């Protein structure tokens, strides 16, 4: 990943938190050609030592290349948006602000028991804040038994991790504050999220 030095984010806490906060990843592998699937990817461990896990449908063509030891690239994306230079005090070039984490990892297929545990943890993560949560083990047994043979679970053991956050670092304070305010006023929720990310990165009160 292209990462100018001022935008690099290699801090372990940043990487781990970013993946947890943006779990819907692009899962890229090389088969007969490059192939990708968009899937939720979960973490196991802590910021000091972790691995990832997920699953895909067996009828997904990517399944053909899903084998122990295969290399995969996971792309986790944060909020992004076009930044108009018309917001600046002086004329300049417009840009795009964004953040992302790339993880190169080796695949390790899960056992049936590991897959079931992974699904249980995934559902718990996203159901717990629902008004009337329906946890994995509360789903009728027959539905689960019919579903499990249709998917394959896997671990992802990272061997290269890169983070980037291009959030207007180094710009004049007036331009940063103006950018934050313009994005904050947007009707687009992603742009409002980016506004908050820029504010935090630049420690603007």
Topology:
Elements (H helix, E strand, L loop, with lengths): L11 H10 L2 E7 L3 E7 L1 E5 L2 E9 L13 E7 L3 E3 L11 E15 L2 H16 L13 H7 L3 E16 L6 H12 L4 H13 L4
Antiparallel strand pairs: 1-2, 1-5, 3-4, 4-8, 5-7, 6-7, 7-8
Helix pairs in contact: 4-5
Account of the protein in words:
This protein is of the alpha+beta class and 205 residues long. The protein has one domain (5-169): Pnp Oxidase, Chain A, CATH 2.30.110. Helix content is 28%, strand content 34%. The chain has helices at residues 12-21, 112-127, 141-147, 173-184, 189-201; strands at residues 24-30, 34-40, 42-46, 49-57, 71-77, 81-83, 95-109, 151-166. Strands 1, 2, 3, 4, 5, 6, 7 and 8 form an eight-stranded antiparallel beta sheet that branches. A hairpin with a 2-residue loop joins strand 3 and strand 4 (49-57). Helix 4 runs antiparallel to helix 5. It starts with 11 loop residues before the first helix and ends with a helix. The model has no long low-confidence stretch (mean pLDDT 96).
Structure keywords:
8 strands; 28% helix; 205 residues; alpha+beta; 8-stranded antiparallel β-sheet; Pnp Oxidase, Chain A; 5 helices; 34% strand; single chain; elongated
Extract low-pLDDT stretches.
none
Domains, number: 1
Q: Strand pairing plus helix content: what structural class?
A: alpha+beta
Into which percentage range does the β-strand content fall? 25-35%
Task: Report the radius of gyration as a whole number of Å.
Answer: 20 Å
The helix-strand sequence is HEEEEEEEHHEHH
General form = elongated
Extended strand count: 8
The DSSP helix count reads: 5
Helix content: 25-40%
CATH-derived topology: Pnp Oxidase, Chain A
| Overall pLDDT metric | 96
The first-level CATH class name: Mainly Beta
What's the N-to-C terminus distance? 31 Å
The CATH homologous superfamily is called: Electron Transport, Fmn-binding Protein, Chain A
The CATH architecture assignment turns out to be: Roll
The biggest sheet amounts to: 8 strands, antiparallel
């Amino acid at each position: 990943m292209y990462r100018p030095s001022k935008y690099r984010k290699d801090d372990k806490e940043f990487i781990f938190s970013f993946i947890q906060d943006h779990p819907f990843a692009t899962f890229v592998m090389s088969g007969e050609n490059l192939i990708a699937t968009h899937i939720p990817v979960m973490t196991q461990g802590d910021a000091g030592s972790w691995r990832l896990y997920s699953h895909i449908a067996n009828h997904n063509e990517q399944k053909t290349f899903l084998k122990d030891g295969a290399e995969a690239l996971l792309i986790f994306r944060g909020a992004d948006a076009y930044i108009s230079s018309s917001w600046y005090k002086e004329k300049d070039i417009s840009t795009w602000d964004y953040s992302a984490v790339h993880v190169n990892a080796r695949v390790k297929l899960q056992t049936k028991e590991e897959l079931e545990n992974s699904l249980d943890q995934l559902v718990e993560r996203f159901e717990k804040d629902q008004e009337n949560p329906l946890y994995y083990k509360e789903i009728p047994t027959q539905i689960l038994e019919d579903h499990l043979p249709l998917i394959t679970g896997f671990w992802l053991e990272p061997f290269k991790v890169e983070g980037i956050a291009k959030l207007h670092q180094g710009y004049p304070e007036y331009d940063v504050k103006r950018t934050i305010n313009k994005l904050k006023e947007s009707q687009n929720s992603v742009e409002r999220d980016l506004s908050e990310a820029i504010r935090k990165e630049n420690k603007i009160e």
